Amino acid sequence: MRSKIVAGNWKMNLTFDEAEELVDNILDRLDEQDEMNCEVIICPPYPYLEMLTDYEFDEQRFNVGAQNCSAYDKGAYTGEVSAKMLKSIDVDYCIVGHSERRKYFGETNEILAEKINRLIENNMSPIYCVGEVLEEREAGRHFEVVKEQLEKGLFHLDGDAIYDTIIAYEPVWAIGTGKTATPEQAQEMHAYIRSLIKEHYDEATADDIRILYGGSCNAKNATELFSQPDVDGGLIGGASLKADDFVSICNQASHIGEE
Ligand code: PGA
Question: Residue 49 C-alpha to ligand 1 middle, in angstroms?
Fold first, then answer.
């Protein structure tokens, strides 16, 4: 059975002190729980990654991910951060293709495919985000859009490399809006994504890859969403900035499937 993952995406929030306080609070709350039966990943802004990887080693309660990386390997690319640099400070995961990067920074599926290549070359796991905007859903084009994002951005990987990838389905109309996809809408798209993986690779691969839901997932709706058979956890934005909510979501993910 696939184990659940809860990944927190802090986006461009928090000062260093606030970030430290949030991690302390998350760890205090995690300590109050029994051992988590889910993988927890925290994705802070770049300047806080090393502080988080230090905690990761001391506490072993969560993994650390970046929110972005360069499509280039190294060199004269001012302001960029490479996958190799991230790996050198023990960051093992990286979000790629978040809709905010696609929208505000012009990241295309082709650029994202390169970012994914750099991550795989450095033995890191991409968390590849896909999802349609509202007009696309209203026009009934959501499956088509997600298929294209997967085919152009991810499915160039071979069968071994794809195993290290996590997919996050994030309908753009649900991100930061408080308007969550219904569990049925999430399940329908996740099952579709899994069917595409099966088509491009094989059934065993499709069965193993984790597909997270993201978009206004919170402590109130997590259990309902994560109980869907093809929803393997969540990519959490706003609610990952509140220790109580984030740990509650992790706890809910941990207990799915228990009587
Ligand atoms: P949200 O963001 O939970 O605040 O909707 C999710 C995301 O953008 O990853």
Answer: 19
Give the CATH number of domain 4-241: 3.20.20.70
For helices 16-32 and 49-59, give the axis angle rounded to 10 degrees. 20
- 126 CB near ligand 1 (under 6 Å): no
CA 96 / ligand 1 centre spacing (Å): 14
Tell me the two tokens of residue 87: 């790996």
What is the distance between the alpha carbons of residues 230 and 225, in angstroms, rounded to a whole number?
10
CA dist., res. 255 & res. 252, Å (int): 5
Contacts of 110 (CB under 8 A, 6+ apart): 152, 153
The pLDDT assigned to 259 comes to: 55
Task: Give me the pLDDT at residue 99, please.
Answer: 97
Q: How far apart are CA 240 and CA 10, in angstroms?
A: 7
Cβ–ligand 1 distance for 97 under 6 Å, the answer no
Kindly give the distance from the C-alpha atom of residue 160 to the centroid of ligand 1, in angstroms, as a whole number: 29
Residues identified as active-site:
98, 170
Q: How many residues does the chain have?
A: 259
Instruction: Establish how many alpha carbons lie within 13 A of residue 138's alpha carbon, considering only the half-sphere containing its beta carbon.
Output: 5
Residue with tokens 């260093």: 16
Q: What are the mean pLDDT values of the chain's consecutive 10-residue runs (259 residues total)?
A: 94 98 94 86 97 80 96 98 97 98 97 98 98 96 98 96 95 92 97 98 97 97 97 98 97 86
